[in-house]
Amino acid sequence: MTTWQADDRPENRPIGPAAMTLVVTRAGLLGAVTYGCLALLLLVRIAERPLFGMARPVTPWITQAVCRTAFVIMGIGYRVQGRPMLHKGAIVANHASWLDIFALNACQRVYFVSKAEVAGWPGIGWLARATGTVFIARDRRKAKAQEGLLAERLRAGHRILFFPEGTSTDGRRVLPFKSTLFSAVGQPDLLDMLWVQPVSVVYHAPAGRDARHYGWWGDMDFGPHFAQTLSVWRQGTVSVMFHDPVRVADFPDRKALSRHCEDVVGAGVTARLDA
What we know:
Elements: H1 17-52, H2 59-74, E1 77-81, E2 89-93, H3 99-105, E3 111-115, H4 124-130, E4 134-136, H5 143-155, E5 160-162, E6 195-204, H6 222-230, E7 237-242, E8 246-247, H7 254-274
Helix pairs in contact: 1-2, 1-6, 2-3
């Protein structure tokens, strides 16, 4: 899978003593809230799993609360336009930053689809597994089995969320959507019951910072980007725009559905950036 790259990147500004104190404070609070609630989530899951099986009626609320709190701790403004759908199905969004996970979890209860490598990342992998992330290997030989796994989660009533661009960007554009993951919602027994909701995620940088400040892409290291994000006292904002959901059965094939979602998400990003 191709990783998007840019000709240049925002400059990493020196972090002075005062800003570093802010980074350490915010990081400490984020860690305490995230991993403290992870422990709570795992305890609740012990009771939830034998009672409800694959269904998770309680633990997603814990994840949502953590993500909402994260934006308060980081000082980033958080805005939501529209409403998450109530239908069974999938959410598709553009991908600009590691912050997308917080932004999209904070306003709805969903299960992310992620590349398999994330499962092995220290810290982040534990969180992803605990919150019910679906891991997908970039291996054509496993495509059919993974499609079946996604369909199983959809049948269980889970709303799955994936990034059809297949990579992250600087947040100033939307790349062509790859239709592969849409095949899971096109299973014959699911066509009439599933919907897909396009979502646009747009970041506005803090005053005086590069417009791509929150973007995280290519081979950018997480640590420095995380520190740069937390070091700003007066933060910018992130806007999450929920567009009208569409019924899967109303499209002739997954490519047509993918193109529609790409057009809607792209128009939403452009409109918000120009606002």
